[in-house]
Amino acid sequence: MTKIAPIALTIGEPGGIGPELSLKVWLRRHDDGLAPFCVLAPLGILENACREHGKNVPLKVISDIAETASVFDHALPVLAIADAESPVVTGIASASTANVVIESITKAVDLARNGAASAVVTNPIQKSALYAAGFKHPGHTEFLAELAGPGTIPVMMLANSKLRVVPLTIHIALSDVMNSLTPELIIEQCEITAAALQRDFGIANPRLAVAGLNPHAGEDGTMGTEEQTIMAPAIATLRAKGLDVIGPMPADTMFHEEARTNYDVALCPYHDQALIPVKTLDFHGGVNVTLGLPFIRTSPDHGTALNIAGQGIARPDSLIAALKMAAEMAEKRLLTGA
Ligand SMILES: NC(=O)c1ccc[n+]([C@@H]2O[C@H](COP(=O)([O-])OP(=O)(O)OC[C@H]3O[C@@H](n4cnc5c(N)ncnc54)[C@H](O)[C@@H]3O)[C@@H](O)[C@H]2O)c1
Ligand SMILES: N[C@H](C(=O)O)[C@H](O)COP(=O)(O)O
């Protein structure tokens, strides 16, 4: 295996399952062959998770992420950040711990941008708690793009072994989708997706399938005209540029097993159209990866799962898949110089 820099793992919502999963993935480091990572969190949050879950995980505070590799085998490296404004209550997301959530992400991005970390892997955040604290971004995806600098256009892709999907619009109300879906947006998102599949996923000629917005992809304009006025022209432009793009496809018939063999990624006009099939096919194996950033970022596909936090039953599979995908992408970039 190539020697990549350590991965920076953010703590996510402290009241959610992030602390528990951080311990669980470290315990699985040998069985799953995980590349070294450190957690960016106040030490107390992880100590508390150890107590709550009866996990005997040795924690080692490091002052420099470069120490991760030498510590990782025998202890979970912790790059400590400031404590939360008020104590963390497992199972409850609070605006008063938003400082921890935001600092963990910001610091991880700094490390990735200066090359000290090979990738950022994020534990889930509770968006409503962050909004209550004044956080202005819909989610990680847009926040990471802002931290990456002007002109960064992020693309959210969710992937498991059965399907890759990109929601063309992300965290907006369904009633706003129609106004946000433009030919420019579709072209931009398709181009970034195709470039990322080539660079990071080893697909030389990616096949993209764009889902229609309306029932039966508009049924020749009788059930909506966005396919004809917005989507078809964008797809024609992409094809003229040499990209392998099909669509707009009727969304209800493009996700069954046989249909999925016709493309490498499905791009869908709205969030749930994309995320329902991928999370249904394999919730625990899914990874959320942000394309178009100047650094690697992956995340589990699930959320903060407040309803099971503290019970010890949260499955680490998706976070393990996210750590593995991040390491594979980093190794590939190191090997190819891409
Ligand atoms: N990457 C992220 O930061 C991210 C991703 C998705 C959702 N979220 C946020 O998480 C919060 C809760 O969202 P939600 O309730 O829609 O989805 P969720 O994924 O947190 O929970 C959905 C269901 O799946 C279960 N579940 C989730 N992860 C699990 C795991 N690892 N093991 C076992 N069961 C698991 C939960 O207990 C719940 O029953 C929201 O604020 C949402 O915005 C964040
Ligand atoms: N829509 C994503 C999902 O359901 O998996 C999720 O909310 C994560 O979004 P960010 O990575 O932008 O936080």
Brief digest:
This protein is α/β, with parallel strands linked by helices and 338 residues long. The chain has 11 helices and 12 strands. The chain folds into 2 domains: 1-153 and 291-338, Isopropylmalate Dehydrogenase (3-Layer(aba) Sandwich), CATH 3.40.718.10; 162-281, 3-Layer(aba) Sandwich (Isopropylmalate Dehydrogenase).
Described by strand count, sense and barrel closure, the largest sheet is: 12 strands, mixed
SSE class: alpha/beta
Fill in the CATH topology of the largest domain. Isopropylmalate Dehydrogenase
Low-confidence stretches: none
CATH superfamily of the largest domain: Isopropylmalate Dehydrogenase
- Gyration radius over CA: 20 Å
Number of helices: 11
- CATH class call of the largest domain: Alpha Beta
Bound molecules: nicotinamide-adenine-dinucleotide, 4-hydroxy-L-threonine-5-monophosphate
CATH architecture group name of the largest domain? 3-Layer(aba) Sandwich
Tell me the number of strands: 12
Beta-strand portion reads 15-25%
> Mean pLDDT, nearest integer?
96
Intertermini distance? 17 Å
Q: Strand order within the widest sheet? A: 3-4-2-1-5-12-11-6-7-10-8-9
Indicate how many domains the architecture comprises. 2
- The 3D shape can be described as globular
Order of helices and strands: EHEHEHEHEHHEEHHEHEEHEEH
Helical percent range? 25-40%
